[in-house]
């Protein structure tokens, strides 16, 4: 388990992480989300002792990272896949890590096989593609067979097969009772992988909840109803105190009722239905809704300004 208590990091007058308190539990994949500049990378670096907190504390199974003997046997992390010695072979890179953490030598071949790099084990990583470098970073994280794993943008550079593989790997690791903490900007992938979410914005905790509850609490859900008798269906719904909202194409949006309830009422009053479909927001839509006020960097579409000049993209929000 990873436990953060009032974790804070300041750089001068800039507060990058502001009194974060949450726990990452074993047995599930926990997603770590936030806009650019939210403090995710700084938080993960403090978890691993790479940055010193201004105040607060992080515990890895009850101890600080610097108190762990042979830390790779407790926690494995992928923060920057290219952070390797380019002159060493992939095998020797892992060998140095294994020797410094009392990891059995046979474990190197096991993780190289697992990530699909056995054939290039004697090649230097400086010639690796982004995806191959990512696989080597994942191999390093798994080297000590740790109970806790942290991944920052693990699918960067991976092809579709690789993305499918790492997604299933993280789920499998969690199913073994391990703690899996993953940060990513790919909402569609996070929605398929994580069961629990921790969301931060401008260094502050915004949400610490299950995936299902996060989407339900930060988005609007409704049932889309289409019928050749919209007025009759409106009156049927109004009889139980529900007022639908009509779309431009004549379909209705109904809130506060389940599809089965609407269908049963329509059948009772003999109203023909052509469509009865629940509409739920995506993780991306819910995330955008929650973090709208916490985005520090906004991109702007190129286009003419009122004075006829082209607009500037990527300006910082002031």
TrEMBL record:
<keyword id="KW-0813">Transport</keyword>
<feature type="region of interest" description="Disordered">
    <location>
        <begin position="296"/>
        <end position="318"/>
    </location>
</feature>
<feature type="domain" description="ABC transporter">
    <location>
        <begin position="2"/>
        <end position="227"/>
    </location>
</feature>
<keyword id="KW-0067">ATP-binding</keyword>
<keyword id="KW-0547">Nucleotide-binding</keyword>
<protein>
    <submittedName>
        <fullName>ABC transporter ATP-binding protein</fullName>
    </submittedName>
</protein>
<dbReference type="Pfam" id="PF00005">
    <property type="entry name" value="ABC_tran"/>
</dbReference>
<dbReference type="InterPro" id="IPR003439">
    <property type="entry name" value="ABC_transporter-like_ATP-bd"/>
</dbReference>
<dbReference type="InterPro" id="IPR003593">
    <property type="entry name" value="AAA+_ATPase"/>
</dbReference>
<dbReference type="InterPro" id="IPR027417">
    <property type="entry name" value="P-loop_NTPase"/>
</dbReference>
<dbReference type="GO" id="GO:0005524">
    <property type="term" value="F:ATP binding"/>
</dbReference>
<comment type="similarity">
    <text>Belongs to the ABC transporter superfamily.</text>
</comment>
């Amino acid at each position: 388990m990873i436990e953060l208590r009032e974790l804070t990091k300041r750089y001068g007058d800039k507060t990058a992480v502001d009194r974060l308190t949450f726990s990452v539990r074993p047995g599930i994949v926990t997603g770590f989300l936030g806009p650019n500049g939210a403090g995710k990378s700084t938080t993960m670096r403090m978890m691993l002792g790479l940055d010193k907190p201004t105040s607060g504390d992080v515990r890895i199974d009850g101890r600080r990272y610097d108190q762990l003997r042979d830390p790779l046997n407790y926690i494995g992390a992928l923060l920057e896949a290219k952070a390797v010695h380019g002159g060493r072979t992939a095998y020797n890179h892992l060998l140095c890590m294994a020797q410094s953490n009392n990891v059995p030598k046979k474990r190197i071949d096991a993780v190289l096989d697992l990530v699909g790099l056995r054939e290039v084990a004697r090649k230097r990583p400086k010639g690796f593609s982004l995806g191959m470098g990512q696989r080597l970073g994942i191999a390093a994280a798994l080297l000590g067979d740790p109970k806790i794993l942290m991944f920052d943008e693990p699918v960067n550079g991976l092809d579709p097969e690789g993305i499918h593989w790492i997604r299933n790997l993280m789920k499998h690791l969690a199913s073994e009772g391990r703690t899996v903490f993953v940060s990513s900007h790919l909402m569609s992938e996070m929605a398929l992988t994580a069961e629990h979410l921790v969301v931060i914005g401008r260094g502050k905790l915004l949400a610490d909840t299950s995936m299902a509850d996060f989407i339900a609490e930060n988005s609007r859900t409704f049932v889309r109803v289409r019928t050749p008798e919209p007025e009759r269906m409106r009156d049927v719904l109004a009889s139980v105190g529900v007022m639908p909202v009509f779309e431009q194409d004549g379909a209705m949006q109904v809130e506060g009722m389940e599809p089965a309830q609407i269908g049963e009422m329509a059948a009772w009053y003999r109203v023909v239905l052509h469509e009865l479909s629940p509409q739920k927001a995506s993780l991306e839509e819910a995330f955008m809704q929650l973090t709208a006020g916490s985005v520090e960097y906004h991109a702007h579409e190129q286009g003419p300004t009122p004075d006829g000049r082209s607009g500037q993209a990527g300006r910082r929000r002031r």
